[in-house]
Protein backbone atom coordinates (compact mmCIF):
# COMPACT_ATOMS: atom_id res chain seq x y z
CA UNK A 1 0.00 0.00 0.00
CA UNK A 2 1.05 3.60 -0.49
CA UNK A 3 0.21 6.86 1.27
CA UNK A 4 1.03 10.34 0.02
CA UNK A 5 1.09 13.21 2.52
CA UNK A 6 1.41 16.89 1.72
CA UNK A 7 2.68 18.92 4.67
CA UNK A 8 1.64 22.45 3.82
CA UNK A 9 3.63 25.45 5.08
CA UNK A 10 6.03 23.19 6.99
CA UNK A 11 8.47 26.11 7.32
CA UNK A 12 5.90 28.52 8.79
CA UNK A 13 3.38 26.44 10.69
CA UNK A 14 5.11 24.19 13.19
CA UNK A 15 4.42 25.03 16.82
CA UNK A 16 4.91 22.87 19.91
CA UNK A 17 6.15 19.84 18.05
CA UNK A 18 3.50 19.72 15.31
CA UNK A 19 6.10 18.14 13.01
CA UNK A 20 5.91 15.10 15.30
CA UNK A 21 2.53 14.36 13.73
CA UNK A 22 4.19 13.77 10.37
CA UNK A 23 6.93 11.65 11.92
CA UNK A 24 4.34 9.47 13.65
CA UNK A 25 2.32 8.92 10.48
CA UNK A 26 5.46 7.98 8.57
CA UNK A 27 6.76 5.64 11.26
CA UNK A 28 3.41 3.91 11.75
CA UNK A 29 3.26 3.32 7.98
CA UNK A 30 6.81 2.03 7.75
CA UNK A 31 6.32 -0.42 10.62
CA UNK A 32 3.49 -1.95 8.59
CA UNK A 33 5.31 -1.99 5.28
CA UNK A 34 3.18 0.84 3.86
CA UNK A 35 5.15 3.16 1.62
CA UNK A 36 4.75 6.72 2.91
CA UNK A 37 5.75 9.70 0.80
CA UNK A 38 5.89 13.08 2.56
CA UNK A 39 6.14 16.18 0.37
CA UNK A 40 6.08 19.75 1.56
CA UNK A 41 4.40 22.73 -0.04
CA UNK A 42 5.13 26.29 0.95
CA UNK A 43 4.64 29.78 -0.46
CA UNK A 44 4.58 29.96 -4.28
CA UNK A 45 5.39 26.29 -4.71
CA UNK A 46 3.48 24.45 -7.39
CA UNK A 47 1.87 21.25 -6.14
CA UNK A 48 -1.18 19.31 -7.26
CA UNK A 49 -2.88 18.89 -3.91
CA UNK A 50 -5.42 16.37 -5.19
CA UNK A 51 -2.52 13.94 -5.75
CA UNK A 52 -2.24 13.54 -1.98
CA UNK A 53 -4.21 11.34 0.37
CA UNK A 54 -3.62 13.58 3.36
CA UNK A 55 -3.08 17.33 3.64
CA UNK A 56 -1.64 18.60 6.91
CA UNK A 57 -1.23 22.12 8.28
CA UNK A 58 0.22 22.70 11.74
CA UNK A 59 -0.20 25.60 14.13
CA UNK A 60 1.40 28.99 13.80
CA UNK A 61 1.40 32.38 15.41
CA UNK A 62 -0.63 35.30 14.04
CA UNK A 63 2.40 36.57 12.12
CA UNK A 64 2.87 33.31 10.21
CA UNK A 65 -0.85 33.05 9.50
CA UNK A 66 -0.71 36.55 8.01
CA UNK A 67 2.32 35.63 5.90
CA UNK A 68 0.76 32.61 4.25
CA UNK A 69 -2.88 33.55 3.93
CA UNK A 70 -2.70 34.98 0.39
CA UNK A 71 -0.94 31.89 -0.85
CA UNK A 72 -3.47 29.67 0.91
CA UNK A 73 -6.46 31.54 -0.52
CA UNK A 74 -5.05 31.04 -4.03
CA UNK A 75 -5.12 27.30 -3.37
CA UNK A 76 -8.79 27.20 -2.38
CA UNK A 77 -9.93 25.45 -5.57
CA UNK A 78 -7.04 23.00 -5.36
CA UNK A 79 -8.00 22.12 -1.78
CA UNK A 80 -11.64 21.74 -2.80
CA UNK A 81 -10.56 19.43 -5.60
CA UNK A 82 -8.51 17.34 -3.14
CA UNK A 83 -11.53 17.10 -0.85
CA UNK A 84 -13.79 16.15 -3.76
CA UNK A 85 -11.39 13.36 -4.62
CA UNK A 86 -11.41 12.05 -1.04
CA UNK A 87 -8.23 13.45 0.54
CA UNK A 88 -8.30 13.68 4.31
CA UNK A 89 -7.25 16.96 5.99
CA UNK A 90 -5.67 17.38 9.41
CA UNK A 91 -5.36 20.92 10.78
CA UNK A 92 -3.85 22.06 14.04
CA UNK A 93 -4.67 25.35 15.77
CA UNK A 94 -3.66 28.18 13.40
CA UNK A 95 -4.27 25.84 10.43
CA UNK A 96 -7.69 24.94 11.81
CA UNK A 97 -8.64 28.61 12.17
CA UNK A 98 -7.80 29.33 8.52
CA UNK A 99 -10.40 26.89 7.16
CA UNK A 100 -13.19 28.93 8.77
CA UNK A 101 -14.58 32.33 7.89
CA UNK A 102 -11.84 34.56 9.34
CA UNK A 103 -9.44 35.14 12.19
CA UNK A 104 -9.52 38.54 13.89
CA UNK A 105 -6.24 38.80 15.76
CA UNK A 106 -5.40 40.68 18.95
CA UNK A 107 -4.35 43.83 17.03
CA UNK A 108 -7.68 43.97 15.22
CA UNK A 109 -6.16 42.68 11.98
CA UNK A 110 -8.54 40.45 10.05
CA UNK A 111 -7.09 37.42 8.32
CA UNK A 112 -9.59 35.99 5.84
CA UNK A 113 -10.23 32.28 6.02
CA UNK A 114 -10.88 29.80 3.23
CA UNK A 115 -14.54 29.86 4.31
CA UNK A 116 -15.05 26.14 3.84
CA UNK A 117 -16.89 26.09 7.14
CA UNK A 118 -19.12 28.45 9.16
CA UNK A 119 -16.90 28.81 12.19
CA UNK A 120 -14.91 32.00 12.80
CA UNK A 121 -12.21 33.00 15.25
CA UNK A 122 -11.71 36.18 17.22
CA UNK A 123 -8.89 36.95 19.64
CA UNK A 124 -9.77 36.93 23.30
CA UNK A 125 -8.68 39.54 25.79
CA UNK A 126 -5.16 38.83 27.05
CA UNK A 127 -6.39 37.23 30.26
CA UNK A 128 -8.53 34.77 28.35
CA UNK A 129 -5.73 33.12 26.38
CA UNK A 130 -6.27 29.36 26.39
CA UNK A 131 -3.08 27.76 27.61
CA UNK A 132 -2.38 24.39 29.16
CA UNK A 133 -2.98 20.70 28.96
CA UNK A 134 -6.29 19.53 27.61
CA UNK A 135 -8.27 16.29 27.65
CA UNK A 136 -11.10 15.69 25.21
CA UNK A 137 -13.65 12.94 24.77
CA UNK A 138 -14.08 12.42 21.06
CA UNK A 139 -15.66 10.06 18.58
CA UNK A 140 -13.52 8.74 15.74
CA UNK A 141 -16.57 7.97 13.64
CA UNK A 142 -17.84 5.10 15.83
CA UNK A 143 -14.94 4.65 18.24
CA UNK A 144 -15.03 6.72 21.45
CA UNK A 145 -11.65 7.84 22.76
CA UNK A 146 -10.08 10.20 25.26
CA UNK A 147 -7.52 12.43 23.58
CA UNK A 148 -4.89 14.52 25.33
CA UNK A 149 -2.90 17.48 24.13
CA UNK A 150 -1.57 20.95 24.84
CA UNK A 151 -3.30 24.13 23.74
CA UNK A 152 -2.02 27.69 23.47
CA UNK A 153 -4.24 30.03 21.52
CA UNK A 154 -5.71 33.48 21.87
CA UNK A 155 -8.24 32.82 19.14
CA UNK A 156 -11.73 31.88 20.26
CA UNK A 157 -13.44 29.78 17.64
CA UNK A 158 -17.22 30.13 17.53
CA UNK A 159 -20.00 28.83 15.34
CA UNK A 160 -18.59 25.30 15.21
CA UNK A 161 -21.55 23.10 14.30
CA UNK A 162 -19.61 19.82 14.25
CA UNK A 163 -17.10 19.83 17.12
CA UNK A 164 -14.47 17.10 17.33
CA UNK A 165 -15.10 16.35 21.00
CA UNK A 166 -16.23 17.33 24.45
CA UNK A 167 -13.75 19.08 26.73
CA UNK A 168 -13.05 17.13 29.92
CA UNK A 169 -10.27 19.42 31.12
CA UNK A 170 -8.84 22.58 29.56
CA UNK A 171 -10.50 25.14 27.28
CA UNK A 172 -11.12 23.98 23.73
CA UNK A 173 -12.67 26.19 21.06
CA UNK A 174 -13.18 29.08 23.46
CA UNK A 175 -11.99 29.92 26.96
CA UNK A 176 -15.03 28.36 28.56
CA UNK A 177 -16.03 26.05 25.79
CA UNK A 178 -17.51 22.65 26.43
CA UNK A 179 -16.31 21.60 22.97
CA UNK A 180 -13.06 21.22 21.10
CA UNK A 181 -12.13 21.28 17.44
CA UNK A 182 -14.10 20.45 14.32
CA UNK A 183 -14.66 17.17 12.51
CA UNK A 184 -16.94 16.48 9.57
CA UNK A 185 -15.77 13.03 8.53
CA UNK A 186 -13.07 14.35 6.18
CA UNK A 187 -11.54 17.41 7.83
CA UNK A 188 -10.30 17.30 11.41
CA UNK A 189 -9.32 20.62 12.98
CA UNK A 190 -8.13 20.76 16.57
CA UNK A 191 -6.36 23.01 19.05
CA UNK A 192 -4.42 20.02 20.38
CA UNK A 193 -0.71 20.37 19.92
CA UNK A 194 1.58 18.42 22.01
CA UNK A 195 1.92 17.00 19.36
CA UNK A 196 -1.44 15.36 18.75
CA UNK A 197 -0.56 12.04 17.13
CA UNK A 198 2.35 10.77 19.29
CA UNK A 199 0.13 11.31 22.32
CA UNK A 200 -2.93 9.73 20.73
CA UNK A 201 -1.95 6.74 18.60
CA UNK A 202 -5.59 5.79 18.08
CA UNK A 203 -6.11 9.12 16.28
CA UNK A 204 -2.97 8.48 14.23
CA UNK A 205 -4.27 5.12 13.01
CA UNK A 206 -7.74 6.54 12.43
CA UNK A 207 -6.28 9.23 10.19
CA UNK A 208 -4.12 6.69 8.39
CA UNK A 209 -7.18 4.55 7.65
CA UNK A 210 -9.17 7.57 6.44
CA UNK A 211 -6.32 8.73 4.20
CA UNK A 212 -5.46 5.28 2.87
CA UNK A 213 -9.12 4.82 1.89
CA UNK A 214 -8.70 7.30 -0.96
CA UNK A 215 -6.29 5.03 -2.85
CA UNK A 216 -7.00 1.62 -1.35
CA UNK A 217 -10.57 1.61 -0.03
CA UNK A 218 -11.39 0.51 3.48
CA UNK A 219 -8.44 -1.20 5.12
CA UNK A 220 -7.54 -2.64 8.50
CA UNK A 221 -4.18 -1.85 10.03
CA UNK A 222 -2.02 -4.33 11.81
CA UNK A 223 -1.92 -3.32 15.52
CA UNK A 224 1.34 -1.86 16.86
CA UNK A 225 2.71 -1.94 20.37
CA UNK A 226 1.51 1.35 21.90
CA UNK A 227 2.15 0.43 25.51
CA UNK A 228 4.40 3.42 26.16
CA UNK A 229 1.95 5.84 24.56
CA UNK A 230 -0.93 4.47 26.62
CA UNK A 231 1.12 4.67 29.80
CA UNK A 232 2.06 8.30 29.04
CA UNK A 233 -1.60 9.14 28.47
CA UNK A 234 -2.58 7.49 31.74
CA UNK A 235 -0.02 9.61 33.61
CA UNK A 236 -1.25 12.77 31.96
CA UNK A 237 -4.90 12.02 32.69
CA UNK A 238 -4.06 11.32 36.31
CA UNK A 239 -2.24 14.67 36.54
CA UNK A 240 -5.32 16.34 35.13
CA UNK A 241 -7.38 14.67 37.84
CA UNK A 242 -9.23 12.38 35.42
N1 LIG B 1 -2.33 32.57 16.29
C1 LIG B 1 -3.40 31.75 16.68
C2 LIG B 1 -3.97 32.05 18.07
O1 LIG B 1 -3.29 32.53 18.95
C3 LIG B 1 -2.96 30.30 16.57
C4 LIG B 1 -1.95 29.88 17.57
C5 LIG B 1 -1.49 28.45 17.42
O2 LIG B 1 -1.47 27.90 16.31
N2 LIG B 1 -1.04 27.88 18.53
O3 LIG B 1 -5.12 31.78 18.27
Automatic annotation (TrEMBL):
<protein>
    <recommendedName>
        <fullName>Lipid II isoglutaminyl synthase (glutamine-hydrolyzing) subunit GatD</fullName>
        <ecNumber>6.3.5.13</ecNumber>
        <ecNumber>3.5.1.2</ecNumber>
    </recommendedName>
</protein>
<dbReference type="InterPro" id="IPR033949">
    <property type="entry name" value="CobQ_GATase1"/>
</dbReference>
<dbReference type="Pfam" id="PF07685">
    <property type="entry name" value="GATase_3"/>
</dbReference>
<feature type="domain" description="CobB/CobQ-like glutamine amidotransferase">
    <location>
        <begin position="4"/>
        <end position="200"/>
    </location>
</feature>
<dbReference type="GO" id="GO:0009236">
    <property type="term" value="P:cobalamin biosynthetic process"/>
</dbReference>
<feature type="binding site">
    <location>
        <position position="129"/>
    </location>
    <ligand>
        <name>substrate</name>
    </ligand>
</feature>
<dbReference type="GO" id="GO:0009252">
    <property type="term" value="P:peptidoglycan biosynthetic process"/>
</dbReference>
<comment type="similarity">
    <text>Belongs to the CobB/CobQ family. GatD subfamily.</text>
</comment>
<comment type="function">
    <text>The lipid II isoglutaminyl synthase complex catalyzes the formation of alpha-D-isoglutamine in the cell wall lipid II stem peptide. The GatD subunit catalyzes the hydrolysis of glutamine to glutamate and ammonia. The resulting ammonia molecule is channeled to the active site of MurT.</text>
</comment>
<keyword id="KW-0315">Glutamine amidotransferase</keyword>
<dbReference type="GO" id="GO:0140282">
    <property type="term" value="F:carbon-nitrogen ligase activity on lipid II"/>
</dbReference>
<comment type="subunit">
    <text>Forms a heterodimer with MurT.</text>
</comment>
<keyword id="KW-0961">Cell wall biogenesis/degradation</keyword>
<dbReference type="InterPro" id="IPR011698">
    <property type="entry name" value="GATase_3"/>
</dbReference>
<dbReference type="GO" id="GO:0071555">
    <property type="term" value="P:cell wall organization"/>
</dbReference>
<dbReference type="GO" id="GO:0004359">
    <property type="term" value="F:glutaminase activity"/>
</dbReference>
<keyword id="KW-0133">Cell shape</keyword>
<dbReference type="InterPro" id="IPR029062">
    <property type="entry name" value="Class_I_gatase-like"/>
</dbReference>
<keyword id="KW-0378">Hydrolase</keyword>
<comment type="pathway">
    <text>Cell wall biogenesis; peptidoglycan biosynthesis.</text>
</comment>
<dbReference type="InterPro" id="IPR043702">
    <property type="entry name" value="Lipid_II_synth_GatD"/>
</dbReference>
<feature type="active site" description="Nucleophile">
    <location>
        <position position="93"/>
    </location>
</feature>
<dbReference type="GO" id="GO:0008360">
    <property type="term" value="P:regulation of cell shape"/>
</dbReference>
<keyword id="KW-0436">Ligase</keyword>
<keyword id="KW-0573">Peptidoglycan synthesis</keyword>
<feature type="active site">
    <location>
        <position position="193"/>
    </location>
</feature>
